[in-house]
Amino acid sequence: MMICRLRSLLSLAKCSSQPFQSPAAAAARTFSSSHHLQNVGFIGLGNMGSRMANNLIKAGFKLTVHDKNSDVLETFSQMGVSTKKTPYEVSEASDVVITMLPSSAHVIDVYTGPNGLLHGGKLLRPWLLIDSSTIDPQTSRNLSATISNYILKEKKGDWEIPAMLDAPVSGSIIAAEAGTLTFMVGGSEEALLSAKPLFLSMGKSTIYCGGAGSGSAAKICNNLALAVSMLGVSEALALGQSLGVAASTLTKIFNCSSARCWSSDAYNPVPGLMEGVPSSRDYNGGFASKLMTKDLNLALESAKLAGCKYPLTSQAQQIYTELCNGGYDAKDFSCAFRHYYSGMDEPLDH
C-alpha cells in the first residue's frame, strides 16, 4: 500500500508545474491527515457534480450533499446519502466541502449568503473548502482571503486555519462519470497534497497552478483555447466543403498533419464522422454553448483587467453569444459548425 501511495504522489508531482515536496514527506503528510477526509460535503449535484459525488461514494467517502433541486436530493437520499437543506448544514457535518456550481454568483451565495457555508461566525468545522466551479479568478482570490480569516472549531492535524482550493476541472460529463477529470488547482500546495485522495477518486490528474485563483485562471485560459480551436476547425471544414473537399477527407488530413488538435481528432464537429460525440447525436449532451459563452465572458473580462489584447476572445464570444440568441444555447458548443458556419439542416457531404 505504501508503495502504491508513493507512486501516486510521484505521478502527481510530474503533472505539477511547480516542484512538490519529497514523496516521503508528502506521503507522511497525506497519511496523517487521511482520517480528516472521510466526511465530505458536496454542494451542486448537476450533470458534473452528481457524477463526481458518485465517484467519491464509490471510493468509500461518507458524503453529505445539498442541491436546490429536490428531485436530485431525493435520488441521493434513496442511495443512503445524507442530504441537507442548506450549505451551512453541510458545513457542520463535513471535514471537507466541495462545491460545483454554475457561476461566480452561485458560488458567492453558497459561501456567504444566508445559511451559507460561512454562516456560523468566524468558526468553521471544515478544514478544507474546494471549489470546482468555473468562475473568475478574482472571486476565487476573494473567497480564499475571506476564509483565511476564519479559525477551525477543532484543530485537524496540523491545521488550525481552514484552507481553500480553487480546483476547476477539464473533461466532459463522460470524464466525470469515468473519474478521469483533470483538476487545475490554485491555493495551498500543502492542502492539495493532503486532499490528494479526494482528487484521485474523481480524476486522473491534478495539476498545481500556483496561489489562490490560479486554478480558475488556468481553466479560463484552457476554455478560451478550446473555443478558438473548435471555431477554427469548424471554419476550415466548412470552407473545405464549399471548395469541394469532403469533411471526412479534411479530417484525415488534419489528424495526421500540423492542424491536428482535440477538436478535430477527439471531438469532431461534423455529424456522422465520429461516434460517441455530440455531433453524432444532434449536438445534444456535452458542453453547452451557454456555458462556453459564460467562460468566454470570464476570459474577456479577465483580459480587460489584465490589459491584454483579446481579438480572438472577443470574436469567439460574439459567435457563441449569437448561437445562444439563436436558440442553440443548450446544444454542445461544437454545434457552431452546423448552426453558424454551415447553416445546414440537410445531411452533409462527408
UniProtKB/TrEMBL annotation:
<protein>
    <recommendedName>
        <fullName>3-hydroxyisobutyrate dehydrogenase</fullName>
        <ecNumber>1.1.1.31</ecNumber>
    </recommendedName>
</protein>
<dbReference type="Pfam" id="PF14833">
    <property type="entry name" value="NAD_binding_11"/>
</dbReference>
<keyword id="KW-0560">Oxidoreductase</keyword>
<keyword id="KW-0809">Transit peptide</keyword>
<dbReference type="Pfam" id="PF03446">
    <property type="entry name" value="NAD_binding_2"/>
</dbReference>
<dbReference type="InterPro" id="IPR011548">
    <property type="entry name" value="HIBADH"/>
</dbReference>
<keyword id="KW-0496">Mitochondrion</keyword>
<comment type="pathway">
    <text>Amino-acid degradation; L-valine degradation.</text>
</comment>
<feature type="domain" description="3-hydroxyisobutyrate dehydrogenase-like NAD-binding">
    <location>
        <begin position="213"/>
        <end position="339"/>
    </location>
</feature>
<dbReference type="InterPro" id="IPR002204">
    <property type="entry name" value="3-OH-isobutyrate_DH-rel_CS"/>
</dbReference>
<dbReference type="InterPro" id="IPR006115">
    <property type="entry name" value="6PGDH_NADP-bd"/>
</dbReference>
<dbReference type="GO" id="GO:0006574">
    <property type="term" value="P:L-valine catabolic process"/>
</dbReference>
<dbReference type="InterPro" id="IPR029154">
    <property type="entry name" value="HIBADH-like_NADP-bd"/>
</dbReference>
<dbReference type="InterPro" id="IPR008927">
    <property type="entry name" value="6-PGluconate_DH-like_C_sf"/>
</dbReference>
<keyword id="KW-0520">NAD</keyword>
<dbReference type="GO" id="GO:0050661">
    <property type="term" value="F:NADP binding"/>
</dbReference>
<dbReference type="GO" id="GO:0051287">
    <property type="term" value="F:NAD binding"/>
</dbReference>
<comment type="similarity">
    <text>Belongs to the HIBADH-related family. 3-hydroxyisobutyrate dehydrogenase subfamily.</text>
</comment>
<dbReference type="InterPro" id="IPR036291">
    <property type="entry name" value="NAD(P)-bd_dom_sf"/>
</dbReference>
<dbReference type="GO" id="GO:0008442">
    <property type="term" value="F:3-hydroxyisobutyrate dehydrogenase activity"/>
</dbReference>
<dbReference type="GO" id="GO:0005739">
    <property type="term" value="C:mitochondrion"/>
</dbReference>
<keyword id="KW-0101">Branched-chain amino acid catabolism</keyword>
<feature type="domain" description="6-phosphogluconate dehydrogenase NADP-binding">
    <location>
        <begin position="39"/>
        <end position="210"/>
    </location>
</feature>
<dbReference type="InterPro" id="IPR013328">
    <property type="entry name" value="6PGD_dom2"/>
</dbReference>
